[in-house]
Write a structure and sequence with these properties.
mainly alpha
Length: 100
């Protein structure tokens, strides 16, 4: 069975489409991986900030200081906890998209 010229052009076009799809998929996967790494880095940074704020708040409470910055530390800790929850949800979403 010999392939005619139109059949060869159709077959080569399909292979080119497949190759282009693979390239687009690789680019998309790489971008998602970078986003996941950035989210992980932000998560670690916020966890560190939260731990520091919590320890400073606990130290201030243990010392019994009535410093005006103590309520600010508590507010900062609660804000960091909120950001931490958001980042954890983002990380879970990114991991779920990577698994698919």
């Amino acid at each position: 069975m010999t392939l005619s010229s139109p059949m060869l052009m159709l077959a080569s076009g399909l292979w080119l489409l497949l190759l282009a799809g693979c390239v687009v998929f690789a680019l998309f996967a790489n971008k998602q991986k970078e986003r996941a790494e950035q989210a992980e880095a932000a998560l670690r940074e916020h966890q560190g900030m939260q731990a520091q704020a919590m320890s400073e708040t606990e130290d201030a409470q243990a010392e019994g200081t009535t410093d005006a910055s103590a309520p600010a530390d508590v507010n900062l800790a609660s804000e960091n906890a909120m950001y931490l929850d958001q980042l954890e949800r983002l990380r879970d979403m990114l991991r779920a998209s990577e698994e698919q």
